[in-house]
Amino acid sequence: MPPTTHAQWLDLAARLLPSVGHLIDGADDRGTGGLFPLVSPRDGQVFAEVADATPADAERAVAAARRAFDAGPWPRLSPTERGRVLQRLADLVEEHRTELALLVSLEMGKPVTEAYDIELRAVINTLRYYGELAGKLADEAPRTAPDALALVTREPVGVVAAIVPWNFPLTLAAWKIAPALASGCTVVLKPSEQTPLSALRLGRLAMEAGLPDGVLNVIAGRGPATGQALGLHPDVDVVAFTGSTAVGRCYLRYAADSNLKRVWLELGGKSPNIILPDAPDLRAAAATAAWGIFFNAGEMCTAPSRLLVHSSIADLVVDTVVERARTLRIGDPLDPDTEMGPIATARQLESILGHIAGAHQDGARLHTGGSPLLDRAGFYLQPTVFDQVTGDMRLARDEVFGPVLAVHTFDTVEEAVALANNSVYGLAAGLWTSDLSTAHQVSRQLRVGTVWVNCYEEGDLSVPFGGYKQSGNGRDKSAHALEKFTELKTTWIQL
Ligand code: NAD
Asked: What is the mean pLDDT of the chain?
């Protein structure tokens, strides 16, 4: 059972003072770059140190993954055997769930109860899903002329560099690692410089679960140095990246400048949430709109950061959202009563404040929030709501990645769809209506990867996740994710 009080979580955190090296070729590896300090957003204090990978460390990690792929047992095991190792890893994550949740919360400020309940549940479910799926897939034998046999088989694509951000550090790592390992690939995982400890712990648990040396390597390092070394490396066959659209572009360039490795991108968003007057329950729609933008301090790629509300119901909806913003319990993420923790880094807080200043300059009206909480150490921000936002304002276009809502009003469904699609992003959208035809018609017109009707952020491992337009390509989760980590081979046999 996890701790249930603030005091118990603080006590556990005080006893957890890691100083950690990389995981390369199955061994603890201090690397060649010294250590760098990790600052917790909950109090702005250094709470741990971690090895700082250099391009030379990245080189050794790729070499280990290459050897493990070219000559090691992992790609040659039966898929069922690989699935068993993933299931054992899921068991170990369950066993160490409290410790992993605490690391995530200390690293990036998510309320520890959400880290335990939501993030770790997602990691366990992901490992179990691909653990089970691994041995249940079949290849194809298309019907050809009687004197030939054609086999269409999927083979592991090789060495995968998995590069992930800090907002869901373990879930997003699991969404890459689990399907890659199930497919028989070997992996170098580079977590964000903000969240290396949880990823390194996951890597060590994978070794305990029976993963052969070199199959999963984890290097803690800063993006521009370590990420670039992986992106340019000729022995990396695939980059599976989640992060900002700007850095996603870098990986496309790295691939173009090196070996044309496959680059899969899960990028940013500016998701619209459309509330029509015939929503089945307007208060529930408004409560979900508020929950969606303030959950995880708004640091969600799918955050419903543009609320598009019909003008006839705008007052009711906005009042409900503003009321929620004013009553949210903001505080120490290690306190189980906290509903919204700090912003993950001082830099991210500064960036969000820049977006808020831009919204003021562009003429949006501030309803609530807009300022940092200066009465405490750490990187805390008031939940913020702007209305009278128009499509040309920066707040309507730019991803803020924080608890800042932009409210637009509209009068017709056509206007709502045009507003919704007026974005370079296309990750997700919400739609609230009681009319089945409207739900289908609007959903078909929205240029996004996921449409949630009368709900938001719902999902299951069996459904794919990913974006249209500059929100990326390819899909995480579901059987479709395996396509990223396998090559299709045709073998034609003349009989
Ligand atoms: P980021 O793009 O700054 O960093 C992501 C990763 O790239 C990190 O591991 C970082 O070290 C590395 N990196 C940074 N600069 C690099 C460079 N020049 N070369 C190579 N690697 C580099 O993103 P972030 O701030 O960690 O996360 C927030 C972003 O992630 C937001 O834009 C958010 O929308 C996006 N995100 C997308 C999804 C999705 O599934 N679509 C999910 C979560 C987050």
From this structure: 97
User: Collapsing DSSP states into helix, strand and coil, what is residue 460?
Assistant: coil
Q: Could you say which architecture CATH assigns to the domain 272-460?
A: 3-Layer(aba) Sandwich (3.40)
pLDDT in tens, 273-315: 999 999 999 999 999 999 999 999 999 999 999 999 999 999 9
- If you measure from the C-alpha of residue 36 to the centroid of ligand 1, how many angstroms do you get, rounded to a whole number? 19
Residue 17, pLDDT above cutoff 70:
no
Dist. CA 401–CA 348, nearest whole Å: 8
* Element holding 293 (H helix, E strand): helix 282-294
Is 185 marked active-site? no
Query: In degrees rounded to 5, what are phi and psi of residue 134?
Result: -45, -45
DSSP at 167: S
Distances (CA, A) of 346 to 22, 66, 185, 301, 381: 25, 37, 36, 19, 11
Give the torsion through C-alpha atoms of 234, 240, 242, 243, to 10 deg.
10
Tokens for 251, please give them: 């990986």
Nearest atom (ligand 1) to Cα of 222? 11
Residue ranges of domains in the chain: 6-267+472-492, 272-460
Put simply, whether the predicted model's pTM sits higher than 0.85 gets the answer yes
pLDDT at residue 302, as a whole number: 98
Pairing between strand 22-24 and 27-29? antiparallel
For the chain, the C-alpha Rg in angstroms (whole number) is: 23
Note whether 57 and 219 are within 8 A (CB).
yes
| Ligand 1 neighbourhood includes 196 CB (under 6 angstroms) | no
Inter-residue contact 125 to 358 (CB < 8 Å): no
What does the pLDDT look like over 317-373, one tens digit per residue?
Answer: 999 999 999 999 999 999 999 999 999 999 999 999 999 999 999 999 999 999 999
In this predicted model, what pLDDT tens digit does every residue of 171-196 receive, in sequence order? Answer: 999 999 999 999 999 999 999 999 99
- What superfamily in CATH does domain 6-267+472-492 come from? Aldehyde Dehydrogenase; Chain A, domain 1 (3.40.605.10)
What atom of ligand 1 comes closest to residue 471's alpha carbon?
41
For the record, the structure tokens of 162 come out as 């998995």
Whether residue 108 has its Cβ less than 6 Å from ligand 1? no
Is 264 a pocket residue for ligand 1 (Cβ < 6 Å)? no
Residue 49 appears among annotated catalytic residues:
no
What is the whole-number distance in angstroms between the Cα of residue 441 and the centre of ligand 1? 33
